[in-house]
Amino acid sequence: MDSLTPQSQFVVAPEHVGARLDKFICAQRGDLSRAFAQTLITHGQARVNGVTRKANYLVKAGDAVTLEIPPPAPTQLQPETIALAILYEDAALLVVNKPAGMVVHPAAGHAAGTLANAVLGHAPDIVTGNAERPGIVHRLDRDTSGVMLIAKTDAALHNLQAQFAARAIHKTYLALVNGDVQTPEGKIDAPLGRDPRDRKKMAIAMTGRARQAVTVFRVLARNAKYSALQVEPETGRTHQIRVHLAFLKHPVVADALYGKRKNDLGLERQFLHAWRIALKHPVTGAACVFSAPLPNDLLDALTNAGFDAKQILM
User: CB 3.0-4.6 Å disulfide test: which of 47, 107, 269, 304 passes with 143?
Assistant: First the structure.
């Protein structure tokens, strides 16, 4: 299924009796996330026997569930001719290696020159998702480099969103942190919320608005001053890895927000790289793993820190 059809109808079979309406919709349309199904329900675009129901309505045998999928909003972005480091591309999926310094989508102070502008310049027909974020299903901080997924069709977008929501997409980062991390591997389970003293920052929080955040790490190499870590976030909170590693008293090297920018490795940005991503292809369902090579500034930093980059990246 290359794009969402404007209207669909499904009759509830005996094996689905008693399922929540939102879950039933997802079972019938595997390309839709549960959040998207709930949005359709809230806006009256998913009806049961012609009647608007709530997401927790339990479907009955013979119920006719009708979906009306709204057309994607036209983008207001301007396409820009910006070179992309393409790792993979087909009709549904684009995978790129985002450089450090590039913002993913327009925001205050960054109206142009973003990854979204570059994607639109590369593939002008992309109109999936938010009008200002065509095809964007996840993000990286401006100064974090590495692998990113871009959906090229509505069906691919909603399939990837569903995989992210189910935590079925696995991301692996490479981080260089300050200090000798003596624990070979570990898990950081600490909820995150907005820092009440600085709205630009996130912080470990125990308030009702804090969200669960879990990060797993493994030490790849270490010495008295630095440690190279393989990091796998199990959740996807803003600045999660950076906050969690700072919480361990081992902030990411050159991270001015949660540590300090000054370093003796020649780095002008934080040493955090989205190294690999594993997922199921949004159309074929095939298992895919995409890797982004480490950029030269991070390779040089590893060498300056006294590590063998080739051995770390094996």
Answer: 269
Q: What residues pair up with 20 in beta bridges, in sequence order?
A: 58
- What's the CA gap between 252 and 258, in Å, rounded? 8
DSSP letters of 220-262? EEE-SSEEEEEEEESS--TTHHHHHHHHTT-PBTT-TTTS-S-
Told to judge if 2 belongs to the known catalytic residues of this protein, a careful annotator would answer no
204: CB partners within 8 A, 6+ apart: 190, 191, 192, 243, 247
Tens digits of residue pLDDT in 217-249: 999 999 999 999 999 999 999 999 999 999 999
For residue 69, give the DSSP letter. P
Question: CA 175 to CA 178: how far, in whole Å?
Answer: 10
pLDDT at 78: 83
> Which residues have C-beta within 8 Å of that of residue 118, sequence separation ≥ 6?
80, 82, 83, 84, 102
* DSSP category for residue 6: S
Tokens standing for residue 96? 């790129």
- Rounded to whole angstroms, the Cα distance separating 64 from 9 reads 7
What are the residues whose beta carbons fall under 8 Å from the beta carbon of 68, sequence distance 6 or more? 6, 7, 40, 45, 46
Q: What is the DSSP letter of 57?
A: P
Cβ atoms within 10 Å, residue 152: 23
Q: Supply the pTM of this predicted model.
A: 0.76
For the stretch 176-220, pLDDT in tens is 999 999 999 999 999 999 888 887 899 998 776 788 999 999 999
Residue 313: how many CA atoms within 13 Å on its side-chain side? Answer: 17
User: DSSP string spanning 112-161?
Assistant: SSSHHHHHHHH-TT---SSTTSTTB-----TT-EEEEEEE-SHHHHHHHH
Contact 25, 46 (CB under 8 A): yes
